Amino acid sequence: MDDLKYGTRNKRGDWAPNEPAGTAPLFTFPPRPLALLKWLPHYFLPYNLLFALSAVAWWHYVLPDVEVMKTLSVGWIVKLFLVNCAALLLFFGAFELRLYILRTQGNRFKYNGKWPSEQKSKAFFFENQNFDNMLRTFGTGMPIWTAIEVGILYAYANGYVPWLTFAEHPVYLFFLVLIAPVIHETHFFLLHRAIHWPPLYKLVHSVHHNSVNPSPWSSLSMHPVEQLGYLGVAFWHLIIPSNPLLALYQLHYAGFGAIPGHVGFDKVELGEDTAVDSHAYIHYLHHKYFEVNYGDGLIPFDKWFGTFHDGSKDGEARMQARYEKKKARANAAVK
Ligand SMILES: [Zn+2]
Ligand SMILES: [Zn+2]
């Protein structure tokens, strides 16, 4: 595919789309019903459906009977951990292999002209982004992911929280399935905004931002505190009346779903003329400029709080104006 039909490449080799990044037409005012209808399939396809199906598959093929989950025994927990690791290795690894190792589509649609593997940085373990990212993902990320999962299943199995069944509460639970992405976006935005508070940023969130040029393994490469906070979105299903299957979906949505924002390419080519949009631009701009786009754009939080950057010249100017104001405020406070 000719990526220059869809965007431009600058002297440094960075590619940018012609169309400015937009937020979903879900909470816009005035409402845009036609845009909403056109967008609606994207709400389910391909990722949300995939993560919902993976939750069902885990429930049926990976997890033991509820009776077994009443006790914390090594057998089922280790099995769950290993399956989680293998699934993540396959899923994230597929993007890494195709786009970064085999480089099947070269640098077409690639936001950053450089390849992380060709740049050493002291910020990383062994000065290697991929090695550092994978070490954090499997060293702390997957144990935390599995611990959250085990905690939730243990609570449900022992009846510590109400377990609503699909037979008795079909409409309510279906509604919860539908709003899982909304729960995710709200949780993620609030957490993310909080860890950009300078003391927390330095202690916790800077680890994730070491990957200025993110690639698939950057997705869950975070400080353990952030991994707990981010994947902990599934704990909402212990607070609101729900079902363990939905908690699994919420967890998979966060864990496996971290990848689209970090893939580094605007489109992943499937054939000569077909490609899927990654919807990565909003979060790519966050990694590039830090103090914009705290959310992923499902809910226009950043527009409401004035921190949205759509990648255009106007967006750039708005960001600069905000930084100037911030600087002036800081200077005034010193005087
Ligand atoms: Zn990120
Ligand atoms: Zn951030």
TrEMBL record:
InterPro entries: Fatty_acid_hydroxylase (IPR006694), Sterol_Desaturase_Related (IPR050307). Its main location: membrane. It is found in: Membrane. One of its GO terms (cellular component) is membrane. GO terms for molecular function: iron ion binding; oxidoreductase activity. Coiled coil: none annotated. It comes from the Bacteria. It holds the Pfam family FA_hydroxylase. The keyword Magnesium does not apply. One of its GO terms (biological process) is lipid biosynthetic process. Residues 178-307 form the Fatty acid hydroxylase domain. The keyword tRNA-binding does not apply. The chain crosses the membrane at residues 43-61, 81-101, 138-157, 169-191. Keywords: Membrane, Transmembrane, Transmembrane helix. PANTHER family: STEROL DESATURASE. This is Desaturase. It comes from Mesorhizobium amorphae CCNWGS0123.
